């Protein structure tokens, strides 16, 4: 199939070689030489840039290849800045990975639009993902963060993503595990296995799977004579966590036949390559135990609910989960505390003559 490229000129040189140039769209007198020939993996990208009056080479950065002050240019600058933050330890690699996905969605549709775009275009983008509302809202949140970053650096003055309503009604997020779920998983994966160890770590630390992957003996310490685990959660804004290492967790970490720097080791005896790889394995372990729709985060939520049911205060749960804002832990205590208050109030009526 022949593909036509408007404005592309193929010129024979005296040497016999062919030179490719492109007329700039809207300015036929200006011709830009191409650094690559048709068939090169980046030919279309270089050609399109030339038609827009921009000279790029295959080695150019995404920011250099983009039309200045376009959506693509702003997205490239934002991702480059995030990469520097990750390298400096100021942002997580997981956040960067999610943001790359958001920028891909945005630029696939609006790459060459002016970066100060109408809000209606972002609403259209959100609505295009209405069948997956949580993802739709996540995309808008990522774009909102990009513009917030840009406004702070005087790259633009307006954040068009502000004020766009969420469409995900919310169904409580991850399903908290119940006692039957925990029992079925342990029956399928007995002590000494990696799945059993993983569940035990998640349950008795209430940590996220992104932290479970690297926790190990290096995090063990003594606090007032008590063996404890201490770590700084990788999620930005989380507070340091220090909790006693209860016997079930201690036994599980010593039960594995192979010990390493981290508690959790893959089938080859090494550390899991990424949070995603551990997450995939955890879902497989759940499936093999007949637990569909269950996730590692559901174990964390189960720990929060159990702590609340055992009478722990909102602030006690905050210290274990690494929360820095009380409202984050309120979801675990709100219903339990209301029931406790109601029960105490009704007890006052028991002695009333009726």
UniProtKB/TrEMBL annotation:
One of its GO terms (biological process) is DNA recombination. Keywords: DNA recombination. One of its GO terms (molecular function) is DNA binding. PROSITE patterns: TYR_RECOMBINASE (PS51898). Residues 172-346 form the Tyr recombinase domain. InterPro entries: DNA_brk_join_enz (IPR011010), Integrase-like_cat_sf (IPR013762), Integrase_catalytic (IPR002104). The keyword DNA damage does not apply. Pfam families: Phage_integrase. The keyword Nucleus does not apply. This is Site-specific recombinase XerD. It comes from Salipiger aestuarii. The lineage of its organism: Bacteria, Pseudomonadati, Pseudomonadota, Alphaproteobacteria, Rhodobacterales.
């Amino acid at each position: 199939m022949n593909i036509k490229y408007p404005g592309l000129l193929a010129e024979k040189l005296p040497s016999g070689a062919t030179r490719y140039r492109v007329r700039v769209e809207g300015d036929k007198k200006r011709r830009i030489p191409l650094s690559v020939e048709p068939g090169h993996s980046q030919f279309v990208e270089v050609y399109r840039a030339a038609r827009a009056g921009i000279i790029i080479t295959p080695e150019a950065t995404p920011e250099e290849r983009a039309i200045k002050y376009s959506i693509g240019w702003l997205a490239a600058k934002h991702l480059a800045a995030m990469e520097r933050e990750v390298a400096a330890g100021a942002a997580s690699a997981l956040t960067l990975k999610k943001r790359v996905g958001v920028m891909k969605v945005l630029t696939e549709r609006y790459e060459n639009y002016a970066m100060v775009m109408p809000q209606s275009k972002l609403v259209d983008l959100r609505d295009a993902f209405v069948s997956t509302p949580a993802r739709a809202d996540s995309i808008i949140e990522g774009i909102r963060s990009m513009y917030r970053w840009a406004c702070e650096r005087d790259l633009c003055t307006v954040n068009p993503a502000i004020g766009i309503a969420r469409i995900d009604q919310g169904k409580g997020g991850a399903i908290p595990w119940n006692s039957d779920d925990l029992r079925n998983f342990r029956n399928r994966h007995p002590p000494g296995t990696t799945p059993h160890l993983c569940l035990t770590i998640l349950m008795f630390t209430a940590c996220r799977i992104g932290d479970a992957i690297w926790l190990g003996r290096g995090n063990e310490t003594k606090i007032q004579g008590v063996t404890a685990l201490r770590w700084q959660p990788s999620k930005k804004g989380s507070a340091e966590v220090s909790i006693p290492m209860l016997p079930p967790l201690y036994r599980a970490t010593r039960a594995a036949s192979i010990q390493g720097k981290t508690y959790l080791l893959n089938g080859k005896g090494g550390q899991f390559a990424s949070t995603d790889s551990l997450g995939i394995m955890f879902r497989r372990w759940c499936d093999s135990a007949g637990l569909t729709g269950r996730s590692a985060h559901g174990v964390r939520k189960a720990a929060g609910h159990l702590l609340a049911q055992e009478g722990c205060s909102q602030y006690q749960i905050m210290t274990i989960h690494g929360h820095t804002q009380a409202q984050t832990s309120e979801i675990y205590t709100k219903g339990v505390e209301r029931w406790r208050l109601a029960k105490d109030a009704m007890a006052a009526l028991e002695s009333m003559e009726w």
